[in-house]
Specification:
Elements (H helix, E strand, L loop, with lengths): L1 H16 L3 H10 L8 H9 L5 H11 L6 H17 L3 H12 L8 H13 L3 H14 L3 H17 L3 H11 L5 H14 L2 H14 L13 H4 L2 H6 L14 H4 L4 H4 L8 E7 L2 H13 L4 E6 L4 E7 L4 H10 L5 E3 L4
Antiparallel strand pairs: 1-3, 1-4, 2-3
Helix pairs in contact: 2-4, 3-5, 4-5, 5-6, 6-7, 7-8, 7-9, 8-9, 9-10, 9-11, 10-11, 11-12
C-alpha cells in the first residue's frame, strides 16, 4: 500500500510550490486587503504583472473567495472565467461562469449565463448548453442577450445535426442592427450551409464586416469572440494597425515627433508589460471584451510587450472606466 502512495506523496510538494515566487509574494501582500473596497482592482493589477497565465489563474482562484464584498468576488471570478475561456479550458470556464451568475444577490447576470452556455457547447456538452439557453429565455430582459441566446440555440441545433433550425436562426438574426448578434448569426449560416447558400451568407458577412477577406473558421464561440471592439473593427472603418509591431525601429517610437502623434493630453494608456507575448495577447483580448480598442507592441530594447488602449475623446472618462474594470493605467503621450 505504501508503495502506491509514494508517487502521490512525491507530487504534493510540486502541487504546493508550483507557483512562482512573484505569485506567492502577491498573495501574501493582497490577502490582508480582502476587505478593502478596491481589493479586486489591486488583485487584477497584480495579476497583470505576473509572468504566466497559470500564476494569474492561481492567484485569482485563491483570492476570490477571500473578498469580503460580493461585487469584488464577482469581478475576480469573472476575470478567472474569462482567462480559462481564452486558454481553451471551456468546461472549467463554464463552471466558473455559472458560479458568477447569482454571485450578487438579486442581480442575476445573464451575460455570465450566456458565456457559461457557449463554453458548455465548446466543451462538447450540448445538453448543458441548451439548459442554460432555456434559462436565459426566461430570465434575461436584455434584447441583445436574448438574441445571442437564440443564435446559440442555432449552434446547439447544428451540433445535433439539425441544420434547418440552425439556418433559420442565422436568417432571423443575420441582418439585425447589433453587430455582435449579426456576426454570430452569419458565422452560423456559413457553418450550417454549403454551395450557393453558403456563398449568400459569406457575401453578407463580407459586406457587413468588409475586413473579413474570406470566410473565417467558424465556431460555437463566435458570439463570445465577436466583442464590441471586434465588431467595430470589422465594419466600414479602415483596419486598425497591427496589434504587435516587432520591427525594432517602429516598436521603439515613443515621442510624439517620431510617431506622428499630436501633442496634448494622453492619447493612450499603458495597462501592462509582459515578457511573454501570449500574456500580452490574453490581456488585449480581455480589454477588447470590455469594448476597448487595445493593442500591444514589442519594446525591443527592454524585450517587453507593452499593452495599451486608446484614450478616446475623453481621456478622464477612459481612466475611470479602466479603474472600474480593475485596471491600473499609465498615461502616454504617444504610441509606446
Amino acid at each position: 500500500m505504501k508503495s502506491h502512495l509514494l508517487p502521490l506523496l512525491c507530487l504534493i510538494p510540486y502541487a504546493v510550490f508550483a507557483q512562482s515566487a512573484a505569485a506567492k509574494s502577491a498573495l501574501s501582500v493582497l490577502a490582508p486587503k480582502a476587505g478593502d473596497a478596491g481589493f479586486a482592482a489591486s488583485v487584477l493589477s497584480a495579476t497583470a504583472t505576473l509572468g504566466s497565465i497559470d500564476d494569474e489563474l492561481w492567484l485569482l482562484e485563491t483570492l476570490a473567495p477571500k473578498a469580503a464584498a460580493a461585487d469584488q468576488r464577482k469581478i475576480l471570478v469573472s476575470q478567472r472565467a474569462s482567462m480559462l475561456e481564452l486558454s481553451g479550458r471551456y468546461a472549467d470556464a463554464a463552471a466558473v461562469w455559472e458560479s458568477a451568475v447569482a454571485m450578487i444577490p438579486g442581480k442575476p447576470d445573464s451575460g455570465a449565463l450566456l458565456s457559461a452556455a457557449a463554453c458548455r457547447l465548446a466543451a462538447g456538452d450540448a445538453d448543458g448548453a441548451a439548459g442554460f439557453v432555456t434559462a436565459l429565455s426566461f430570465s434575461s430582459a436584455d434584447a441583445e442577450t436574448v438574441a445571442l441566446a437564440d443564435v446559440l440555440a442555432g449552434w446547439i441545433a447544428l451540433s445535433r445535426g439539425d441544420r434547418e433550425h440552425a439556418v433559420a436562426s442565422a436568417r432571423k438574426w443575420g441582418d439585425t442592427a447589433s453587430g455582435r448578434v449579426a456576426m454570430a448569426a452569419l458565422y452560423l449560416g456559413c457553418a450550417a450551409t454549403d454551395g450557393a447558400e453558403r456563398d449568400v451568407f459569406g457575401r453578407a458577412l463580407s459586406k457587413r464586416f468588409p475586413i473579413l477577406s474570406d470566410y473565417p473558421v467558424v465556431s460555437s464561440l463566435s458570439l463570445l469572440l465577436a466583442s464590441t471592439k471586434a465588431v467595430a473593427a470589422m465594419t466600414e472603418k479602415p483596419p486598425a494597425p497591427p496589434a504587435a509591431m516587432t520591427d525594432g525601429a517602429s516598436a521603439e517610437r515613443g515621442s510624439t515627433a517620431e510617431s506622428g502623434e499630436p501633442a496634448g493630453p494622453a492619447r493612450y494608456y499603458q495597462i501592462g508589460a509582459f515578457r511573454d507575448q501570449a500574456n500580452a495577447q490574453t490581456l488585449v483580448q480581455k480589454l477588447e471584451k470590455l469594448g476597448l480598442t487595445a493593442a500591444y507592441r514589442l519594446r525591443s530594447k527592454k524585450d517587453l510587450y507593452v499593452v495599451f488602449v486608446e484614450s478616446g475623446v475623453d481621456s478622464e472618462a477612459m481612466i475611470l472606466r479602466l479603474k472600474d474594470a480593475g485596471y491600473e493605467a499609465w498615461p502616454l503621450d504617444g504610441l509606446p
